[in-house]
Amino acid sequence: MSGHSRRGSPLYLERLGLTNYRNYETLNEDFSAQLNILSGPNAQGKTNLLEAIYYLATGKTYRPARDLQLIRWNHQAFSIQGKIRNKQGYVTLEVLYKIGEQNSKEIKVNGLKIYKTSELLGNLTAVLFAPEDLNIIKGSPLERRKILDNDISQVSPGYFLKLQQYNRVLNQRNYLLKKIRERGKGFDELEIWNEQFLELSESIILKRINVLEKLSPLTRLMQRKLTNGQENLEIRYLFSRQKELKLNHDLKKVLLEELEKYRGEEIKKGISLWGPHRDDLLISLNGNDLKVYGSQGQHRTAVLALKLSELEFFKAESGEFPVLLLDDVLSELDQERRGFLLNIIKEKKIQCFITTTEDIALENDRITIQKFLIRQGTLIKCRGGK
Ligand SMILES: Nc1ncnc2c1ncn2[C@@H]1O[C@H](COP(=O)(O)OP(=O)(O)OP(=O)(O)O)[C@@H](O)[C@H]1O
């Protein structure tokens, strides 16, 4: 990596460049290391910009879209470039996606092509908070697992690789289970795949529980701070959506028992019925399942607490706070929570991008605010910052 060491300085995205990305034809902009406010009416490109930053951090979009759909309409390729300052010094990241006979994606770190997305991870880390994050509480188990998987992948690229391997093994195992159901053949092969399935399941679940045992106390603390000590938030790992798993449990034994328990049924149904892809998180407030008993406001506060604890988690794991992307959520928070959030951003020196349709007044001194107006994929920097 190039550049001088910047021990203790905050990580931030200094410059972002876009070419034919969503509704941006070209963009080349410098950002503040602290607060960047992106304001504009609906459908102008505010979320698209946050999405591009998140893409640079994770190598994929977080929205339900394929790479192909990110290319500006009637064009053949998109690119995202970022100049990042992190503990390594300066790092440049670049993603280029092209339509061709074989659609192709190229990622470069400091100008050098990398061949695995896992090598991109960790250069720029990001936490996103968007309105749809309420689904973390209300939505399917997938929404809750995604939090863990996305966060862990950013700080442990090895975990990201394990997830990719797991998905391949899972597909293969499902294919075999179906084959056995239909033709009654393939039992020996299944045993071989089961070995890998067990090994990967163990390592993924172990890492998730490990991280959760760090994240849960942080979230609990944040929730207490946000509610003047009134609410105790707890997050627990639910194996197969029902069994609570902790670090001190004999995971190998639990997994082997599950394998035996579902053996017949899996063949009958032709699909894997257990594994990390079917686990869940139980989020409870003062002992009650938040999804079932919580009010809308409690859901919102819990998600905020979770997001804030993710920031601390990244700091503890990588030594740096991530970039915080707040998509249209500030207006959803009351004055007190908004102040709490802004104070954290200021005190911890976290670079933050806030999108908004309203002109938000942020009564906050001692923080550098750079405002931008977004109009149809064009950024207009407001002079004087504020
Ligand atoms: N591949 C694409 N090519 C061109 N334009 C696109 C593409 N994908 C999305 N858009 C356009 O981007 C715009 C949406 O941008 P974005 O989601 O960033 O809106 P926003 O400014 O965040 O709005 P809101 O306040 O409503 O959330 C829409 O006008 C949409 O048509």
From TrEMBL:
Recorded GO CC terms: cytoplasm
Record GO terms (molecular function): ATP binding; single-stranded DNA binding
Any GO BP: DNA replication
Keyword rRNA-binding carried by entry: no
Domain of life where this protein originates: Bacteria
Sequence ranges assigned to domain RecF/RecN/SMC N-terminal in this UniProt record: 12-367
Keywords recorded for this protein, A-Z: ATP-binding, Cytoplasm, DNA damage, DNA repair, DNA replication, DNA-binding, Nucleotide-binding, SOS response
UniProt KW Kinase keyword: no
Residues annotated as binding ATP: 40-47
Record's subcellular location: Cytoplasm
InterPro entries the UniProt entry points to: DNA-binding_RecF, DNA-binding_RecF_CS, P-loop_NTPase, RecF/RecN/SMC_N, RecF_2
Spans traversing the lipid bilayer: none
Family recorded in the similarity comment: Belongs to the RecF family.
HAMAP family per record: RecF
Function field: The RecF protein is involved in DNA metabolism; it is required for DNA replication and normal SOS inducibility. RecF binds preferentially to single-stranded, linear DNA. It also seems to bind ATP.
Protein name (record): DNA replication and repair protein RecF
